[in-house]
Write a structure and sequence with these properties.
alpha+beta; 9-stranded mixed beta sheet; 28% strand; binds adenosine-5'-triphosphate; binds magnesium ion; 8-stranded mixed beta sheet; 25% helix
Length: 601
């Protein structure tokens, strides 16, 4: 492509709305333009990057035995009502764009496609002989994200590859899941990004095993905890670890002490001369079930620890039947002045046995506190906790004597860097930041059961299909690559995903020898399959070099004065290393370099 014929505008200034360097660079280098919050136009150069990533994804998935298709973006509400996700995805903080058609039928724009694919599977899959099956698509997804930001990282309209597999049993699912793990690794390797695979939470989509792929970058939204032996890596949402040992208590018997002005843990510990590991704090959450039920959840946890809200939400989900709900939609730390409270709460002094009389009697409020304990509290002896009376604390109390252990005990704590690992306590967890670019799930029968998608096995029994699903953020991956690979002058694309791999710069377009040589090399490169740009603009050389660096084309060829000696300068963008190459050899030279860098793993 000739730059003189392209719609390409670079900017000197950073766009005001951009925080991340990758976002700034994509806008400044003329790759994307914002139309609305979280909605971006992919300009021609960006579209080439996205096409290249999509092609790598396609090649690797096709090798794995998956088949490409294109599902519908418009999705009828009934399908989502069948799966039970319509309310979760359209009410409160739901992220589905919902609309009503001219016949007054509710519909949504696809944020994900489990419902649509399960509806197809239900109609088309009859027998075990058709299984296993794996279909995927590369398509625009719509999500009305609560906080769209960081350019393509969290868009409201973005490109995703999503695949869905169907199996006779969990064994077959595990096999495909393993193949997908290897396929994803190959995809990210070929795209030239540094990544790691981590254990992940399965979230609202449900199911059992799941793994995320993270591009490592300091600006990543996700925290990853891992051990140096390479045997453990998990998203902090999911991570488990051994908490630090509790310091033995200095109290020997139960006593209620007056502790004025100790509404925080720090103050309590200072006044009582104790470690927070001897204190049991109560954290109160408001959880919202479908149908509008409010459940007040009282979590007892060692005071040096904090509650992992993802683990808490999952635990509540497991108990949703007991509240008479299908699911818990969301939770937040309770507002003590909330209008569910029948009387002012002893904030800062709440005990594990906070009586249910604090709850207003109302059809919308679950009539009991749902009491949960984190595992850190179970072994504590002679500990400190609240009394439900302002300015007083219990010291030297014990479970089973002074307080009932909460009925439900679970791992609810946030694992932290510095904690010991469960698989080997001599290993200590370290923390890194990552950008989630892929997520593979073993879904099981959640959707097939809800939507009655079954098959007949060898014995003639009708069973629900066992499902897996595999997402990969194509547009997010493109930006994550930039976040990971840039310098003060601009983007440094890996040739595998660069919009063009070579840019030929004519320093002086009025010099016909320079122009002729450049045009000749340009045509030769085009014919040998190199994605080449020709900067034939009537601009100063400095501007051309700056633009080439900013947009990050991996190799630059300059047809300057050296053509008099029969050579051109080839500069590698990443290292700025310059080599003089004979004009007659430059195509072969670059072809060789590119072939090596584009070799498949
Ligand atoms: P996140 O936790 O970041 O919101 P998610 O768990 O909602 O992601 P999935 O539903 O698993 O993501 O989607 C599959 C992939 O699609 C993600 O791994 C991510 O790379 C990408 N993705 C998800 N949401 C967005 C978004 N708003 N903008 C761009 N890419 C996204
Ligand atoms: Mg999300």
């Amino acid at each position: 492509m000739r730059l003189s014929q392209m719609l390409w505008v670079t900017l000197r200034e950073d766009p005001a709305e951009a925080e991340l360097i990758s976002h700034k660079l994509l806008v400044r280098a003329g790759l994307i333009r914002r139309i609305a919050a979280g909605v971006y136009v992919y300009l021609p150069l960006m579209w080439r990057v996205l096409q290249k990533i999509s092609q790598i994804v396609r090649e690797e998935l096709n090798c794995s035995g998956a088949e490409e298709c294109l599902l519908t973006q418009l999705q009828p509400a009934e399908l989502w009502q069948e799966s039970g996700r319509w309310d979760t995805y359209t009410k409160a903080e739901g992220i589905m764009f919902a609309l009503t058609d001219r016949m007054e039928r509710p519909m949504g724009l696809g944020p994900t496609h489990e419902e649509v694919i399960t509806a197809i599977a239900r109609e088309m899959i009859r027998s075990y002989r058709q299984l296993p099956l794996h279909l995927y698509q590369i398509q625009t997804k719509f999500r009305d994200e609560i906080r769209p930001r960081f350019g393509l990282m969290r868009g409201r309209e973005f490109i995703m590859k999503d695949g869905y597999s169907f199996h006779v049993d969990g064994e077959s699912l595990k096999q495909t899941y393993g193949v997908m793990d290897r396929t994803y690794r190959r995809i990210f390797q070929r795209c030239g990004v540094e990544f790691c695979a981590v254990e992940a939470d399965s979230g609202a989509i449900g199911g059992s095993g799941s793994q995320e792929f993270m591009v490592l970058a300091a600006a990543g939204e996700d925290e990853v905890l891992f051990t140096g032996d390479g045997r453990y890596a998990a998203n902090v949402e999911k991570a488990v670890s051994m908490p630090p040992e509790a310091v033995p208590s200095r109290f020997a018997s139960a006593e209620k002490l007056s502790t004025p002005n100790t509404e925080t843990i720090d103050k309590t510990c200072a006044v009582l001369h104790i470690s927070p590991t001897q204190d049991v704090k109560q954290v109160l959450y408001e959880a919202y079930g479908d149908g509008g039920l409010l459940i007040l959840v009282l979590v007892s946890i060692r005071a040096d620890q904090s509650v992992n809200e993802v683990k808490l939400l999952n635990e509540l989900q497991r108990h949703s039947d007991s509240f008479g709900c299908k699911s818990i939609l969301r939770l937040n730390v309770a507002d003590a002045a909330g209008n569910w409270a029948a009387q002012p709460l002893p904030v800062g002094y709440i005990a594990p046995d906070l009586p249910d009389t604090y709850l207003k009697a109302s059809a919308n409020i679950y009539p009991h506190f749902f009491r949960l304990g984190d595992r850190t509290i179970t072994d504590l002896k002679n500990f400190v906790t609240g009394t439900n009376e302002p300015e007083t604390n219990w010291v030297g109390v014990n479970w089973g004597v002074d307080f009932q252990l909460p009925e439900h005990i679970a791992d609810l704590r946030v694992a932290q860097a510095g904690d010991r690992a469960i698989h080997d306590p001599s290993q200590v967890l370290a923390s890194a930041r990552g950008i989630e670019v892929g997520h593979i799930f073993q879904l099981g029968t959640k959707y097939s059961q809800a939507m009655n998608a079954t098959f007949t096995n060898e014995k003639g029994e009708e069973l629900p299909l066992v499902m897996g699903c595999y997402g990969l953020g194509v547009s997010r991956l493109a930006q994550a690559a930039v976040e990971q690979s840039h310098d003060q002058d601009g983007i440094i694309w890996h040739p595998a995903i660069a919009p063009y791999t070579v840019i030929i710069i004519i320093p002086n377009v009025t010099d016909s020898r320079q122009t002729e040589t450049a045009t000749q090399i340009y045509h030769q490169m085009q014919h040998s399959g190199i994605d080449v740009l020709l900067d034939d603009r009537d601009e100063r050389t400095g501007v051309k070099f700056k633009d080439a660096d900013l947009v990050g084309i991996p190799y630059r060829v300059v047809t300057g004065r050296s053509i008099g000696e029969g050579t051109v300068e080839v500069v590698e963008r990443a290292t700025k290393q310059a080599t003089m190459v004979p004009i007659t050899e430059v195509v072969t030279y670059l072809k060789g370099l590119l072939d090596r860098r584009l070799a498949r793993p």
